Amino acid sequence: VKSSELPVGVPDVNVETEPFWTGIRERRLVLPFCESCADYVWYPRSFCPKCGLSRPPWRETSGRGTVYAFTVVHRSPLEAWRTCTPFIIALVELAEGPRVLTNIVGCDPGQVHIDMEVEAVFESGEAGSVIYRFAPCEGRGE
Amino acid sequence: MSLRGRAYIAGIYEHPSRHLPDTSTYQVYREVVMGALADAHLSIADVDGLFCDNDAGFAPWSLAEYLGLECSYYDSTDTGGSTYLAHVGHAAEAIAAGKCSIALICMAGRPRSERALVRPNVTPEFAFESLWGSFGPVSNYALAASRHMHEYGTTSRDLAEVKVAASIHAQYNPHALLKKRVTVDEVLDSPMVSSPLHVQDCCVVTDGGGAVVVVSPEIARSLNRTEAKLLGYGCYIRHSAHGRSDITQTGAAVSGPTAFAEAGIGPRDIAYASIYDSFTITVIESLEDLGFCEKGRGGDFVRDGTLVAPLGRLPINTDGGGLCNNHPSGRGGMTKIIEAVRQLRGQATPETQIPNCDLVLAHGTGGFLATRMASATVILGGHDA
Hints:
Number of helices of chain A: 1
Helix content of chain A: under 10%
Oligomer: heterodimer
Mean pLDDT of chain A: 93
Strand content of chain B: 15-25%
Largest interface: A-B, 43 and 35 residues
Shape of chain A: globular
Number of strands of chain B: 11
Strand content of chain A: 25-35%
Distance between the termini of chain A: 16 Å
Strand order of the largest sheet of chain A: 6-5-4-7-8
Structural class of chain B: alpha/beta
Strand order of the largest sheet of chain B: 1-7-4-2-3
Shape of chain B: globular
Order of helices and strands of chain A: HEEEEEEEE
Largest sheet of chain B: 5 strands, mixed
Mean pLDDT of chain B: 96
């Protein structure tokens, strides 16, 4: 089980993004997929920003990707995060294309590197909220 | 319509303080506005255009009322730190269209003395970016730095060179917050905040503000203030392009060429540049995108004193920049304009004044390099430019 001690916040869900967060609660990463552009939309919204198509259908992604950029946070003034340093913030490039802001967990901060293969993990908070983070792929731990 | 020669910066003022615990923020506005108007030999009653950011209040009316302005033209475009460079372009557009003739651009804030107001965030990206422990912009810029290092081999020593140049300039500025000259090793030995950015890769937090007065050519001639003529302006929003953007590239890749084309000159003609320096990486990416060096070669470019006045190939931020001198209200764009005008006028510190400084550039970076940001570039020249 890969989980972290990082704070699990409560996502700001609205009618436009509700299917995405429902997917997260089901431990699936689902994104709008525009058939005419043959491309996923990030961040999730109710139309394709490339061609304007309304209501692209939601499609499950592989949940896998690679680290595109990362930073190890050593100092944080945020009350909930101050005691969690060092922790990793990254842009993960999903196998399906979009680059997603997230944390990398289950990985020593000294071991994270660009192009490292990662997969989505899902973490629950006290309020019943569920969020996504990414961790090194099973069997490919660093 | 070209803006070349359609407006002049006739007045500038930078608040001399960096810590203002015993004043109201609006008093700071008043001080910088009166300072810039005095420098232009104008009065409050002459102003017919007001340009301010969203920190000035819910709308420009609060500031107009407080200062006692009568404005028939106003603009509160807010693109973070690049706001005031955009305001110079917008003021020139309004002047060229005959909508106003004496435009006041001003800003003030006291983040060192009072906690900044945190506004409720209603942006659509907020839900996907607020859960990961980011505080302020540093981790976002650190992501861009990590990618730049990966793609181009830029090093922490290269980033540190930007801070070193700023500190060399700041030692001559009596108002600079940090006046001590630092070495590359001292930057690297400073505590890591968000890798690869150390404390000394980050700009200062200061109270203060500044103002500039932009006027029509007719007014400029009547004031005998024709040494800072607007030659070119460009701006660009570079967003995440639904998760596919290149975070090693800023909006300067568009705002720069746009401004140079309007000015009819190129990067090699520039004698001095104010380059937005919220973080050292901001400078490296901007120098490349503005065309001062090849994309990806910013790290090579800044070595060997390139940025140090007066003899470097491209002296920048001779006031000490945001990294050492001043970054009032977390917004460094105003001071970038002011120092560029000082260089044109021959009013920089004697140690950093560039001889025969005839063409200058001021560049602003607002927002967040790894997600979405707005660049604005202003090119100025002397009377004969």
